[in-house]
Every structure is written in C-alpha cells, then in structure tokens.
C-alpha cells in the first residue's frame, strides 16, 4: 500500500515522464520523417518541451515529498525505497545544475557538434580541439555542482551505469585486453577466412519482410511498437510505444538484419519493464550497460549462433533464392561470424568491437586525470589503435574524429557498450544453465523461453539493483570478462581455430 506522499510523488514523476515521451517522439520523427525545411519549427518545439520537462522535473513539491519520504524515523518498504532513491538522484541532477550552466552546455554542444562535423569532413582536428577542451572544462564543472569534483570521470560513468567506477572498469578492461588481443591475433592467422561479399543485390522488400518475421518471432510486440528507416539505427520510446529504426543496403543484407535484432533486444527490454511504474525506479532500465546487454545478447549470443540459423536459414534462402544459390550453409554462417579488425568502431565485428571501447575508455580516463592533453589526442589515438587493433589510422577522420559522442559532451558513455557485452555473455550462460535445451528451442523457432527468463530476471526488475548487483544476483558471479572470453573462444575458436 502506498502512502499519500508516495502516491503523489509517483504521479509527479509520471507526469514528467509523459512529457519526456513526447520529446522522444519528436526526436524519433525528426530522424525518420521530418521534411528538410521543417527543422526550424522542430527546434522550437523541442526547446519548448525541454522547458516544460525541466519545470516538471524540478517542481519544488517533488523536493518536499522526497524530504518527507526520506525521514529516517519512518523507513519505507523496499519497493518504495527504490522509487525514492532514483527520484532523489534525478531531482538533484535537475536542481543542482544552475540554469545558466545548462544553457551554456546546450549552446556549446550545438557549436561543438558542428565544429566536429566540419573537422571530420576536413580532417582538421586542431579546428575541433578547443571545443573538446571546453567540453572537458564544462564536464568538470558539472561534476563539481553534483559534489563529484574529486572524481569527475566517475561521475559521468555513474550517470550511464549507476554504481560503476573507472577503477572497476579499468581492472576488467585490462583483463579483457590481455586475453582478447592474442585471440584476435590467432583468428587472423587462421587459414579460415570469412567472405563478407557473398550476398549481393538483395532487394529491400525481401530484407524488410525477413527482419520483420525474425523480430516478431523473437518476441517484439508490433502492437506496441514499430520499425522504420533512419540514417543511424536506434531504439527509442517506452514499452507502451517502442520505436526502432534500421537502414538498408542491397549488398549488405546482414547489416539491416543484425542492426534490427540489436534494436529488438533494446525494444524487448523496454516492453518488459513494469508499465505501471514507468517513470520511477521500478519501471526504469538499470543503466546503459544493462540495456546494451539486452541488445547484444539477442544480436550475438542468439542470432549469430547455429541454432538460430537452423531455424531461419531456409526462410532466408527462400526469400533470397537467387542471391544464395551459390552460397553454402557454412559460408553463410562464417559470413555471419566474420572477424576483421577495422579502424571504424561502428563497422567492427563483435570480437574486435571491445578493443575499440577499451581504446576510448583509456583515453577518456587520461583526459580526465590530466595525463593527456587534448592536443595530443590524435597521436595517443594512433598509438593505441596500433597496439590494440594492429591498425594505424592514416588520418584523424578514421581515428579520433570518427565518433560523435564527445562533441555532445557524452563522456563515460563508451564503456557501457563493452560492459553490456560482458554482461550479455554472463546472462547467456546463466540462462543456459537454467534451461539447457535453450538452443533446441531456438532451432524449432521458439525463443519464448529465453525471453521469459529475461523478463523474470532482468526486465521486471527495473532499477531495483545497479548493474554489478544485478549480475551478481542473477548469475551468482561478479561482473567480469570471463564469460565473454569463454563465449568468444567457444564460438570463434570452433570456427577459426578448429
Ligand atoms: Zn545498443
């Protein structure tokens, strides 16, 4: 039973959340549908929504209700403590940052984005460097407003993955690096080579039909969501209305398929969060790394596996009969699991992807520690790329200028991708232990057992626990790279190192 202040707090939080869903929808529409000359009005709409959202989230009544509910004399039931803890975190963030600072950061992010886009086009890192320096200065100030001036990088990591720190991540990434670099080297020395140019001229209509069948079978509820096309694939919205996007290339049908399965993993998580508590800690995802664990689990452990292809290969061949006529099952499966280091993170396979993240994490950490100056980033990037990927970018476009994240001041975001990969592998083995016949289910086209397991253990949990505690309680082990290395060795070892 909820007390009156708890009921009132939830109503306030859910009103702020509802405003957020409107903003989110405007953002989705901007990426998917917006006519080119309509951007001006969209910017005004978004600015108005930001104002309304800020007013709702910083409502002083929320502060009063929190103070009342936090009275040490009247401890709350566990579920309500989750709501109050998360609401406090969000309320402090919106009320402790001065309005001037928020405006300055927003304006700078817009300028820095354009400076980055120009610098990338012209391969001009020095033109962008002052904007990045300013972002770092703003980041330090932001951390200080929240009382985290002693460890500003940890503050940003915690924004994405509550409870996580640079030291904890650093230790895990160091272990991963030690094991992963030699594995990649031996895969590259293997006489087995994947051909990624096997499937040419696969019509978009066929691709669209196939990925719709696949994602529906995985459990995505199209009564409460949809998939459209955008320049960069993403998933937005909530469980009540989940919007996914993909993009098509007739010569790369696996791209649209796997990006759709990835976004489906995000979408399934959103659709599985407790709807009645949306906008509160009980109805909220547990952080970016946990979110990413859901997308990667479906994309990699499930959809790059033999059982998945046993189920879907016949239909794939039926739709693309001409394009697959000369392709054997083994060739197709190898193409699904190709490993080839690339300079560009977004083009990376699931094995080498982690090395791209380790590179960015190590550089971000040094930037915040003052051990690396922005002007020295390109050199540091090239050296790290050589060490980790065995590849040296010929220019900064293929190096330090490739990602958009830093131009928006999004620090501490990259690690979530790799944390998600580690957690996905741990969940995979835990799910297999709970149901050893999981892959037989997949081969028969039944993915409901895995989804049910995730619904129970992850989705329905909301933000009751942070990533570390969640992994511990579901898998019985600490979050670590061990399961990821085991999984990569099993899958890629069998293919390449026979
Ligand atoms: Zn993702």
Description:
- A three-stranded mixed sheet has the order 1-3-2, with helices on both faces.
- The chain has two domains: 4-150, no CATH class; 166-497, Orthogonal Bundle (Neurolysin, domain 3).
- Strand 2 (235-238) and strand 3 (241-246) form a beta hairpin.
- Helix 5 (99-122) runs antiparallel to helix 6 and helix 9 (204-218) packs antiparallel against helix 12.
- It contains 21 helices and three strands.
- The mean pLDDT is 96.
- The protein is mainly α and 498 residues long.
- The structure holds zinc ion (ZN).
- Zinc ion is lined by residues 262, 266, 292, 295.
Compose a concise summary of this entry:
This protein is mostly helical and 498 residues long.
Mean pLDDT: 96
Biggest sheet descriptor:
3 strands, mixed
Number of domains: 2
Radius of gyration: 23 Å
Strand order of the largest sheet: 1-3-2
Number of strands: 3
Bound heterogens, unique: zinc ion
Helix amount, in percent?
55-70%
Low-confidence stretches: none
Proportion of strand residues:
under 5%
Q: State the CATH class of the largest domain.
A: Mainly Alpha
Sum up the overall morphology in one term: globular
Cα-to-Cα separation, first versus last residue: 59 Å
Number of helical runs?
21
CATH topology call of the largest domain: Neurolysin, domain 3
What is the H/E string? HHHHHHHHHEEEHHHHHHHHHHHH
């Amino acid at each position: 039973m909820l007390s009156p202040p708890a009921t009132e707090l939830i109503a306030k939080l859910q009103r702020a959340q509802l405003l957020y869903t409107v903003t989110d929808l405007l953002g989705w529409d901007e990426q998917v549908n917006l006519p080119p000359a309509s951007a001006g009005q969209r910017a005004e709409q978004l600015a108005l929504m930001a104002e309304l959202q800020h007013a709702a989230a910083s409502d002083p009544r929320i502060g009063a209700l929190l103070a009342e509910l936090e009275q040490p004399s009247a401890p709350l039931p566990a579920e309500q403590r989750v709501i109050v803890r998360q609401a406090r975190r969000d309320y402090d963030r919106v009320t402790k940052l001065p309005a001037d600072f928020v405006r300055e950061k927003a304006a700078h992010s817009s300028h820095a984005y354009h400076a980055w886009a120009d610098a990338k086009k012209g391969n001009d890192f020095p033109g962008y460097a002052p904007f990045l320096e300013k972002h770092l200065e703003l980041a330090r100030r932001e951390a200080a407003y929240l009382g985290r001036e002693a460890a500003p990088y940890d503050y940003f990591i915690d924004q994405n993955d509550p409870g996580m720190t640079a030291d904890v991540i650093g230790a895990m990434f160091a272990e991963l690096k030690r094991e992963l670099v030699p594995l990649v080297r031996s895969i590259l020395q293997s006489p087995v080579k994947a051909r990624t140019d096997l499937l040419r001229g696969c019509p978009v209509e066929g691709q669209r039909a196939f990925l719709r069948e696949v994602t529906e079978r995985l459990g995505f509820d199209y009564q409460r969501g949809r998939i459209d096309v955008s320049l960069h694939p993403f998933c937005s919205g909530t469980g009540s209305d989940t919007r996914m996007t993909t993009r098509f290339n007739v010569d790369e049908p696996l791209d649209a398929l796997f990006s759709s399965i990835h976004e489906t993993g995000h979408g399934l998580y959103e659709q599985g969060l407790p709807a009645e508590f949306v906008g509160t800690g009980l109805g909220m995802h547990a952080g970016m790394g946990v979110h990413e664990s859901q997308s990667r689990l479906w994309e990699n452990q499930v959809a790059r596996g033999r059982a998945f292809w046993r189920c879907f290969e016949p239909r794939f061949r039926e739709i693309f009969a001409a394009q697959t006529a000369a392709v054997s099952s083994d060739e197709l499966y190898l193409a699904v699991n190709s490993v080839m280091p690339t300079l560009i993170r977004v083009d990376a396979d699931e094995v080498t992807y982690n090395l791209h993240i380790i590179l960015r994490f190590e550089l971000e950490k040094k930037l915040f520690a003052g051990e690396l100056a922005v002007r020295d980033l390109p050199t540091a990037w090239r050296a790290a790329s050589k060490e980790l990927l065995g590849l040296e970018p010929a220019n900064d476009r293929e190096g330090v200028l490739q990602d958009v994240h830093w131009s928006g001041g999004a620090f501490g975001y990259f690690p979530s991708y790799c944390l998600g990969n580690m957690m996905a592998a741990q969940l995979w083995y835990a799910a297999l232990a709970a149901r050893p016949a999981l892959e037989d289910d997949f081969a028969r086209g039944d993915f409901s057992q895995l989804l049910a397991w995730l619904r129970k253990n992850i989705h329905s949990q909301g933000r009751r626990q942070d990533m570390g505690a969640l992994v511990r309680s579901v898998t019985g082990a600490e979050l670590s790279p061990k399961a990821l290395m085991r999984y990569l060795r099993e899958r890629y070892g069998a293919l390449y190192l026979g």
